[in-house]
């Protein structure tokens, strides 16, 4: 992988430096190298496809990808119109929760069964799947925050994507998928992408030592890339971050000193309360910079099993609405609102998909969170919302959820 990574860096380097007026001999050398680098990029993009989605830099859309908007603003470049001096905390940023799960159909889950140990409690695909469209498609549609859950792959040699115990792909490594983001950022240098890396630990059969190996690999990848903004402990301005990835660290290294060497913002899992409707995490103690977060993913304070789906969906919508109202209230603090949820105390379960979209029957006459969220967002149009993390961001197809987050 190291040699391949080097070739890809060469690829991007050549993209910026090849000059048509270069001498013949030089041009030949460069073109030979470039085609090898092109091949390397193609290989990595093919390897990453099951998690990143199909992506080809040459056919990268340069137009509005939503059918419902009349705006001339390109969703693939919506940050271009915003001044460099804008603070990232002052933007409304659409995001996706469990972004790697988009192709975790039952067919994908069955094809990975030999690697996804059923003893670890792996359920049907529908329990894990939170998206229907890929990160590559999401980027073009304006999504700029991605929730990525990683751990070592079953061979213990590379970083792979998981949702709880379920492996998402045995081919797409974290490093491969990062090259997908790099390639996209090369084509969209005005944009900033926030990647949240959460260690998906606690799988019962995970060998000891996997955690340390995974952390070492991830630290190497994040600190070694010129596409990753190396600034630590603060978000800064859009101008400082354009063309780069901002990292959220949802994992703990063994010491605070090691953690401080990593780029981005640290949100310690030990401080992240489970199922919180409204909590504060300080990511920079020296400067007292904090994030206000809603991550109420299982409305289990309603009490009990087999509650009405409407009551569960309404409780989630209420928590989201309250948090978005708070975000809209001003200040420079970072706000993160997760609109994603499930309800596993019911039998049958209210899956992430039913939660987001309803189940299409009189059981959920108002649809799911997504249908109701559009109204909430329209009521807050023009206000700063912070990061809004969606499930099934592109559905239902007749509403423009991303546009509503962007205030369009
Ligand atoms: C999505 O999953 C299906 C079923 O496993 C697979 O055939 C297809 O290649 C996957 N798509 C991508 C882009 O990897
Ligand atoms: C994409 O669109 C922008 C402005 O709309 C233009 O400046 C740029 O050249 C376009 N790029 C491609 C590859 O078409
Ligand atoms: C830190 O900021 C919060 C508001 O975000 C404020 O309530 C608190 O008093 C501040 N603490 C210090 C030590 O300044
Ligand atoms: C919930 O419903 C399922 C299926 O009808 C049933 O088996 C289960 O006992 C119910 N649970 C409770 C606590 O009522
Ligand atoms: C909707 O949920 C109800 C109650 O769980 C179930 O009986 C029905 O089959 C579901 N309909 C669909 C289309 O999933």
From TrEMBL:
Bias (Low complexity) ranges: 64-73
Signal peptide (residue range): 1-23
Keyword Lipid biosynthesis: no
Entry keywords, A to Z: Signal
Protein name (record): PLC-like phosphodiesterase
GO BP annotation list: lipid metabolic process
Phosphatidylinositol-specific phospholipase C X domain residues: 81-250
Gene Ontology MF annotations: phosphoric diester hydrolase activity
Organism: Bombardia bombarda
């Amino acid at each position: 992988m190291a040699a391949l990574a080097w070739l890809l860096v060469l690829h991007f380097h050549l993209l910026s430096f090849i000059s048509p007026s270069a001498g013949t001999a030089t041009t030949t050398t460069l073109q030979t190298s470039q085609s090898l680098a092109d091949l390397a990029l193609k290989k990595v993009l093919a390897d990453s496809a099951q998690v990143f989605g199909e992506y080809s830099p040459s056919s990268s859309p340069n137009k509005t990808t939503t059918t419902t908007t009349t705006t001339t603003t390109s969703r693939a470049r919506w940050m271009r119109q915003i001044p460099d001096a804008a603070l990232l905390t002052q933007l409304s940023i659409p995001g996706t929760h469990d972004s790697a799960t988009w192709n975790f159909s039952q067919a994908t889950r069955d094809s990975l069964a030999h690697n996804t140990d059923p003893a670890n409690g792996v359920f049907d695909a529908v329990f894990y799947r939170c998206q229907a469209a890929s990160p590559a498609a999401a980027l073009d549609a304006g999504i700029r925050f991605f929730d990525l859950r990683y751990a070592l792959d079953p061979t213990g040699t590379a970083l792979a994507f998981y949702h709880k115990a379920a492996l998402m792909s045995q081919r797409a490594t974290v490093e491969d998928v990062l090259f997908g983001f790099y390639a996209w950022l090369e084509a969209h240098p005005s944009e900033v992408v926030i990647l949240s890396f959460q260690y998906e630990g606690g799988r019962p059969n995970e060998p000891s030592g996997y955690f340390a190996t995974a952390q070492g690999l991830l630290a190497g990848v994040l600190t070694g890339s010129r596409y990753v903004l190396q600034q630590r402990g603060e978000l800064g301005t859009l101008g400082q971050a354009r063309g780069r990835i901002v990292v959220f660290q949802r994992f703990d290294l063994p010491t605070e000193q090691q953690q401080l060497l990593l780029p981005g913002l640290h949100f310690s899992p030990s401080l992240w309360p489970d199922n919180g409707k409204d909590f504060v995490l300080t990511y920079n103690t020296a400067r007292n910079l904090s994030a206000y977060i809603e991550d109420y993913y299982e409305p289990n304070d309603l009490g009990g099993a087999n509650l009405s789906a409407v009551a569960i969906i309404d409780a989630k919508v209420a928590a989201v609405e309250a948090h978005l109202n708070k975000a809209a209230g001003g200040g420079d603090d970072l706000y993160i609102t997760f609109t994603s949820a499930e309800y596993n105390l019911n039998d049958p379960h209210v899956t992430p998909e039913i939660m987001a979209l309803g189940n299409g029957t009189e059981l959920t006459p108002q649809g799911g969170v997504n249908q109701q969220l559009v109204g909430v967002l329209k009521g807050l149009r023009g206000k700063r919302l912070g990061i809004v993390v969606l499930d099934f961001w592109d559905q239902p197809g007749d509403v423009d959820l991303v546009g509503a987050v962007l205030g369009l």
